Batch of 2 targets.
Target 1
Amino acid sequence: MTQVVVQQPTIAAIATPIGQGGVGVIRLSGKNAYKIGCQISQKNTLIPRHAHFAKFLGESGVIDEGVVIYFKAPHSFTGEDVVEIQGHGGVVLQNMLLSRCFELGARQATAGEFSMRAFENGKIDLVQAEAIADAISATSMAQATSAIRSLSGNFSNKINGLLEKLTNIRLYVEASIDFPDEGDVDFLSDGVIESKINEILGQLDDILATAEQGQLLRDGVHVVLAGRPNAGKSSLLNRLAGVERAIVTDVAGTTRDILEERINLGGLVIHLTDTAGLRQTDDKVEQLGIHRAKDAIHRADVLLVVHDVATKVDLKVFVEELLGSDETDRTDEILQKLLVVINKVDLLNDVPHETFYIKDQLIVPTYVSCETGWGIDELIDRLKDKVGFHPPENGLIARTRHIDALKRAKKHTLDAKEQLTVFFAGELVAESLRLSQQALGEITGRVTADELLGKIFSSFCIGK
Ligand SMILES: Nc1nc2c(ncn2[C@@H]2O[C@H](COP(=O)(O)OP(=O)(O)OP(=O)(O)O)[C@@H](O)[C@H]2O)c(=O)[nH]1
Ligand SMILES: [Mg+2]
């Protein structure tokens, strides 16, 4: 049976990047897309999925020539009638063609509106829609391939598999509530439900672990460099970035403002912030810089404290001072995200291996030389360990909202297990499993608030 799609008012947008290119594509979707496509390309009919060569006609003559393709509903990206007009990739030509589409009744598509329609018409689920945006904005190969795997349905299939299992257990539980005396078996205590719940918990943990890696892959981590003036913070940023991005001099207090650089460390994207060296100073500009540095330190996922191996100042004292200067006492929080780097080991004959304790935490510094590059690979490995970045072979892209929903699903499933094994409360088991299902359904969009949809699709580019 052919799916019936209610076609909405026609939208149009330039689907290729604005600029100069061999080809530029205008995309139309909606109830008049076919009619507008025929008018512009001067055709009486367009055969679905055929490339028709055409001269594109404007009000006062031919605008451009190229290829027009018609995708008949529901066999199109949006599920509606879609027409793609492929002309030359010039800004003026593309805008003239787009204006012509508007004259013929289409309106400008808003950001993500094509994908929103694809979602509404059941062509893709929410995870896949997000994966499109992530694939387009990917800045590393790992991000791109993971996004395409999510787009192909790998992530959605895992969620749908779990949803199906939850439905089955709910049926079993509901049956045991409705027919408590059926046969000789007491459904609630025969162990079947418990083992099925355990199976789901195991799978939830697996998906959660994959999703957490996927979120790290997508969003990266915020790493902040802090330390005394001249320790080599800016030199470390330059070394990790592979370009001379920050100014480096032997003048203490060189960096005044904070500077952020996005760096790809073998798949892990870090947003690295260089800061002003921390010291007592009367210089107004430097004071402001130090204030900003402290703000950045609190916002960091990982704090790299850089120390000059040759300085007389004791590193332990410095770190303790840094922690002590925090009025709100987030010492433990800062200790958690702390990595200590001792720089300039090229100035020594032997690299020391000193460790020390702050509170009860053992601090094992990483020794490096920003000048020669010695120890930098080890630092990168330790950074990855610190944030738990170990992406699996077939990773998937994921977002914070997915992880939040997975965690809620896990909590409700654990509740279900408790109601079953501790309280033997069949109704409450069923209710917790329903809540777990609801949380999982939010991921693919089976149960989703309109407000969330608006938020997701508005972050897309126009034309997608
Ligand atoms: N020998 C040696 N010198 C280094 C190394 N790394 C940095 N330096 C030198 O140390 C000095 C300070 O380096 P910066 O990177 O500007 O130090 P910073 O921590 O950013 O300093 P401020 O911006 O003033 O806080 C410069 O003269 C660098 O050339 C290193 O590994 N070995
Ligand atoms: Mg600096």
Note: The mean pLDDT is 90.
Target 2
Amino acid sequence: MRDYVKIIDRLKRLDLPLNIIDTVNDYPIHLLRLESLTDIPKNILITGGVHGDEPAGVEAVLQFLARDNTELLKRFSFTVIPCVNPSGYVHDTRENRDGIDINRSFEEEKVREVVILKRAIGQTQFSFTIDFHEDYEATGFYLYEGKKDEKYLGPKIANAVKSIGPIDTEDSGEDAPDIAEGVYKVASKWGTQGLAPYLLHYHSEHVIITETPTTWPLEQRAALHLGVLDTALSYY
Ligand SMILES: [Zn+2]
């Protein structure tokens, strides 16, 4: 069992407005909006904890929220959902309490977390979305990228962050075409059951899924996630 109360406490200690968008199995799902200092910001969406047994994503989101983002807020507004699957987080399961993989359910109408996320996102369009994940079998990090204009940034991003830790050189095994070493295309054959493909189709010009190896220390995994985020934003 992991302690979700500690996550809630860290969120409450932030000097940021904290919205509870709904609860699942009595666990609140939070959403924070970091409003830009400019009138014409680009909208960015950051999500963690879609898979409950991948805690580095949640950690990365919490570290993002706790740091000073003043420079980024001159250009961007952020919508941030730190933990999409709190019951999975608590019980250390990939799936939610009902045994459902949320990341394969975005065309399902009855999966609570999916319904809650869709309602929270509403009609919002994002310039860029990042979804933090982990891989138990990987020896290094890798990325999935989808971009409507197909001008991929993933190869440059992977190169920029490999000082944090090595790129995984194994094939992703997920039936995804290579863009570059350690960067795979969000494949159209996946449909829109996954969060990132769903967002790419309906809500976002550009999506990246980061995957860190669970064997790395938590801090290194969180640093990699944030390194990818910051590098991607540097191109906007
Ligand atoms: Zn995952």
Note: The mean pLDDT is 96.
